[in-house]
Please model this.
Amino acid sequence: MKPSKQPSPIRVVAGVATQDHQVLVAQRQPDTQFISWWEFPGGKVEQGETDQQALKREWREEFGVDIHVGAPIVETEFDYGDKVILLCSFWCDILDGPPMLHQHQAIYWSEPRRLDAGVFSGADRPLIKVLCERFNRVARSESADKADAILHNPSPAVMKKCGVEGGQ
Model:
């Protein structure tokens, strides 16, 4: 009996755009594996791309917009059984817009606490938890500068995991 070989993780990036204390989420087109799950937009990092290049390319393909990729948020790993996804999420700003639906069936702006993790892909679920914690801390902060620091200043460990050395 052969031991089962764990597949190598597939590196994927996701962008979290914010507007008025809300985040942008997108609903996938129906398919056999992921039905119509919601997700934070992004996709697979192709060979030779940095995470930031991949995220910019994916947003252009999926929504026809250019983005600025900011600081990393969190890196998570999820085993779907047939593949393992290593997801690194980043804050992003939409530079031109609004986003158009090229590969999704819907987009929605929502407060993170209102997102139902049960309708998101497994790799995105830990990100919802992190966003809820950060936005709750922002709601309790006294100043705009402190709120911005809470959202956009990652720990050095997250920066290193997401391939960002010494900032953007």
